Amino acid sequence: MTADQGAKSGQDCMPEIAQTYAHAFAALQPDNIDDLLALLSDDVRFVDPFNDVTGKAGFRAIFDHMFATCTAPQFHITDIAASASTPSERVYLRWRMSGRLATWPGTTLALQGMSEIHIADNKVTAHYDHWDSASQLLAKLPLIRSLLRPILRLFVVRTGGS
Q1: Range scoring the smallest mean pLDDT among 18-22, 48-52, 125-129
Q2: How far is the C-alpha of 147 from the C-alpha of 155, rounded, in Å?
Q3: 150: helix, strand or coil
Q4: CB 3.0-4.6 Å disulfide test: which of 74, 87, 107, 152 passes with 10?
Q5: What residue spans in the chain does CATH classification 3.10.450.50 cover?
Q6: What CATH number labels 3-131?
Q7: How much is the pLDDT for 64?
């Protein structure tokens, strides 16, 4: 099987709940979070660089916190793909998140990442966010930036004339 055939067959088998979840995630607002929660299993697991929670209450708390600490947060889904090996059980959402921290320092958010979504019995059972919190968020915060930038520079590869 070629990569193209695998990708095509994975897309053909993408469960409807994956598209529904992607749309609900992109439209997420404080007044419609129940639409997203309705797509989750009771014991859903959510993991991102800062949190690891289980259950709908924990999932809700993550997004309630996001809306409390950010002004106009919005997820922009840029791509969706089904796993080549388990297309009906795992999908990937590529996204950008925009917004601004609601309090000092008021940092503009422009995050890029991917969510790995696990599905069973037509419910989302896990949502794993993969994104670089060090370079996309922490390095933009005034106090942390001065400490983090020299550390991040240690890992920069110098090529040619640079």
Answers
A1: 48-52
A2: 15
A3: helix
A4: 87
A5: 3-131
A6: 3.10.450.50
A7: 97
